[in-house]
Amino acid sequence: MSEEEKIFVALFSGINVGGNRIVKMAELRSFFEKLGFGDVATYVQSGNAVFRSATGDVATLTKQLEAAFEKKWGFHSRIMVRDLGWFERLVADNPYPEVAGEPTKLHVYALERAPTPEETARLSQKCTGPESFEIRDDVLYLHAPDGLGKSVFANLIPRTLKVPCTARNWRTVQALLELAGRDG
């Protein structure tokens, strides 16, 4: 890795869900490599890619990836690009360390932007079940003690908060951080 290259993670939304919008991870790795990115690795079928780039601007990378992805696959996928420092802060700032060992009960939503106090208050009003959440800048942490599949509140987050987002469980977060920290 050259000194000016940085490590990034791309989180895709809406691919390989329910047998629709299928993108094979080998094809996704090849896609990144053809765009000139280095040390590309993917993790699970939900669309997670770790890569190196000399371009350090996440907004530029996001636009580039979304446009190239849509051109290649013929449909839009919102992509959240974050750098390694963002992932390291996400893990360090976990407000639920007591459940970090139970990765199916802890989820993280990468938000396109930090929500306003009004948006956060609106979401708080909907959180009436066993779940709890905390927002730190552009990250929403969700503790779902019964798991995400049984959480009614989890389904309300995107449409109530109205901030574009994509969710990952804690196991995926840890795996991506490990992939991103590997020696290239």
UniProtKB/TrEMBL annotation:
<dbReference type="InterPro" id="IPR012545">
    <property type="entry name" value="DUF1697"/>
</dbReference>
<protein>
    <recommendedName>
        <fullName>DUF1697 domain-containing protein</fullName>
    </recommendedName>
</protein>
<dbReference type="Pfam" id="PF08002">
    <property type="entry name" value="DUF1697"/>
</dbReference>
